[in-house]
Amino acid sequence: MTTPTTDIATDRNVRPVSDNRRKILEATMKRFQYQGDALIEVLHKAQELYGFLSPELLSEVAQRLRLPPSRVYGVATFYHFFSLVPQGEHSCTVCLGTACYVRGAAHLLHDLETLSGVKAGHTSSDGRFSLLTARCLGACGIAPAVVLDGEVIGHADCSDLTARIQKLLGREE
Amino acid sequence: MDLHELEAIAEREQAQRPHLRILCCAAAGCQASGALEIKRRLELVLSAAGKLAEVEVTPVGCMGLCGHGPLVRIEPEGTVFERVTPADAEEIVSALEQGPCNVLHCDLNHPFFTRQQPIVLRHCGRINPERIEDYIAVGGYRTLYHVIHDLTPAEVIQIIARSGLRGRGGAGYPTGLKWATVAKSPGERKFVICNADEGDPGAFMDRSVLESDPHLVLEGMAIAAYAVGAEQGFIYVRGEYPLAIERLQKAIVQARRLGLLGAQIFESGFNFRVDIRVGAGAFVCGEETALIASIEGRRGQPRPRPPYPAEKGLWGMPTLINNVETFANVTAIIENGPEWFRQIGTEKSKGTKVFALTGKIRNTGLIEVPMGITLREIVYEIGDGTPDGTPVKAVQTGGPSGGCIPAELFDTPVDYESLAAVGSIMGSGGMVVMDEHTNMVDVARFYIEFCKDESCGKCIPCRVGTVQLFNLLTKLRNGQAQPRDLDTIEELCELMRETSLCGLGQSAPNPVLSTLQYFRHEYEQLIGVEVDHGS
Q1: Minimum-distance CB partner of A142 among B33, B294, B298
Q2: A55 contacts: CB under 8 Å, gap ≥ 6
Q3: Angstroms from B347 CA to nearest CA on chain A
Q4: pLDDT tens digits for range B181-236
Q5: Chain A residues bordering chain B (beta-carbon distance below 8 Å)
Q6: pLDDT, tens digit, for every residue of B64-106?
Q7: Which fold would CATH assign to domain B16-114?
């Protein structure tokens, strides 16, 4: 259920000088007047900025919103959208909604797992590729649907998809 | 903003509009098939031909026939082209003068179009969802004006109650009754929430409505807020629907700018502010008390009812929660009167229902049909059967809370009571067609796996029951089950249904029970037989 963002897996220490992500996050919390009710909105923003929710980030949010860390952790782990570990640079999300399932999404996922060597829900050991699943993208009209780095692909076909993934991974090597 | 200004906007819009318009579907499905590139190419071809002043290319919402997308419509002529590619742009532009090109022509006389009765979807695919002027030009926000200036809150509730409208989220609770309860519940503040947490896999009605006609929902919410006495509204949208969120945000900003939302709407004493809350991927948040917990920034776990949200909801205040489609019905009912609405549908289920028709079906897409239509008409006439002619085996309605209805029962009329009588539910509108190649035990296991992952863990029957059911079904599928395991499955289903806290756990056994009822032989075939895991 994790939606890929382009800003994924960049180590926070890599660009400390131009890092205004903290400021943006602070502005978001300020907009909600640091109310605990806004926790989910704040976590959305934090994940959008950093790609995932690290323990330090969670404690910082807890502190700023004056919430117990247990509550922040509880919310972050309850919702599928939030990821506590970094995601791969590139990601492929296979929709496993009913319409996609009936049109062979489970086979597609199985084949992708075999071909990429990455299990669903995991990231390759080099951190370059994540294979994810979604419950329903609402794109049932073009089932089976897949999201490759944010782009929705309808009537997904395994060989075409593998070629695209290879291209994504290969181009930057 | 007053009525004159509103009409002036509509007139200006009509006057400025070129006679010929090319409408390109820019809903999520068609966008994924390259609709935006088609729009760009059409504009290029038109500008090369020097026709950009006479012909307007407009992005619109869902035209319904998603499986044949991307779709392009020519207005005012009404021709629709299907499966358009960017390379077809020239042919479409030349067809503006020389008549339609046959290759891409979409047959509008097909039952897919003629059997539908659009009320909720009446503007979908005809207006640009990102421009409030388009909505105003088709009569938008007039009903809100009329309601605020000519009707009392009690009169509005009476109209909705008399229309017989029932909740379109699936359970079918009478909308008028719910509004009346919120209106009479004491509270220093009241809230209106639009439930757009469309979590059922295989359903995309709410997404399409929000992407295609967001102002219709906002206007319905504002009318509801006026009726129940609320000044703050929330739309809780799934995080998986980025386009719907973007268009809603735009719509809210535009409406606020024109004074159609916010303080002193239409220069009256009525204030209504709407905020969006983006879900974070939890199916259980479609349950109203869990949804409220989520808006309050907590884990989306339901609580026992009563008290119902209508009495004690968001921050303990009386809260009206309705589904997207319910709100989208409001303006039409007030415009045309409750008697008009009552004429559509069956005795107990009035009006129309939007369905997402998907799975093994030729015409995949979004449809709106009068209540009481039979499943046979939907599957064989509107849907045109399976793509390769394989016999249809069953239709699944209601997602993980619903059931599978076998082909023998396809004469069942689609209304709340009839679907419940055959072991399914109306649900929010997902309708997945399954053919002879679909294994029903696999389908049941698929749904139970879904519920197992989505159970919030608060109550034991659901938390443990879904896991046990999943294990039993897996055992069955692997050919390791004993005949008595079927009894255990049934017993467990009964127990979950009776003792779970919320709708998720209570209805999770439905896919299993309905497939056991109608396709028991498929279960029995698997007892003690090792099967190939590949399929």
Answers
A1: B33
A2: A84
A3: 31
A4: 999 999 999 999 999 999 888 899 999 999 999 999 999 999 999 999 999 999 99
A5: 1-3, 35-41, 43-44, 71, 74-75, 78-82, 96-103, 134-143, 145, 151-154
A6: 999 898 999 998 888 899 999 999 999 888 888 876 666 678 8
A7: Glutaredoxin (3.40.30)
> Which pair of structure tokens corresponds to residue A16?
């400390």
- What CATH number did the domain enclosing A167 receive? 3.40.30.10
**Nearest in space to B62 (alpha carbons), one of B167, B216, B174:** B216
Q: Which domain holds residue A31?
A: 1-85
Interchain proximity A75–B201, CB inside 8 Å: no
> A132 and A114, same structural domain?
yes
For β-strands B191-196 and B232-237, DSSP reports them as parallel
Q: B440-525 — its CATH code?
A: 1.20.1440.230
| Half-sphere exposure at residue A145, Cβ-oriented, CA atoms within 13 angstroms | 30
Q: What is the ipTM of this complex?
A: 0.90
pLDDT value of residue B532 = 53
Beta strand pairing status for A146-148 and A90-95?
Answer: antiparallel
Nearest to B146 by CA among B223, B59, B40, B248: B223
Chain B residues near residue A142 by CB distance under 8 angstroms: 29, 32-33, 66-67, 69, 364
Decide if domain B352-435 falls under CATH 3.40.190.10.
Answer: no
Separation between Cα atoms, residue B404 and residue B510, nearest integer Å: 9
**Residues in Cβ contact with A123 at an 8 Å cutoff, skipping those fewer than 6 apart:** A85, A86, A87, A88, A129, A130
Name the closest residue on chain B to residue A75, using Cα atoms. Answer: B299
Mapped onto helix, strand or coil, the DSSP state of residue A98 is helix
Point out the residue among B66, B200, B433 whose CB comes nearest to the CB of A142: B66
Distance between CA atoms of B481 and B489, rounded to whole angstroms?
11
In the structure encoding, which two tokens stand for residue A165, read together? 């993934």
The whole-angstrom distance between B249's CA and the closest CA on chain A is 15
pTM value > 0.90? yes
**Chain A residue closest in CA terms to B314:** A37
Number of domains making up chain A: 2
Which pLDDT value is given to residue A6? 40
How do B403-406 and B392-397 pair as beta strands? antiparallel
Q: What is the mean pLDDT of residues B494-518?
A: 96
Alpha carbons B170 and A45: distance in angstroms, whole number: 32
CATH of the domain at A49: 1.10.10.1590
Cβ distance B199 to A135 less than 8 Å, yes or no, reads yes
pLDDT per residue, tens digit, chain A (173 aa), is 444 444 434 444 444 445 799 999 999 999 999 999 999 999 999 999 999 999 999 999 999 999 999 999 999 999 999 999 998 999 999 998 888 988 889 999 999 999 889 999 899 999 999 999 988 888 888 889 999 998 889 999 999 999 999 898 885 44
* Chain A environment of B282 (Cβ under 8 Å): 78-80
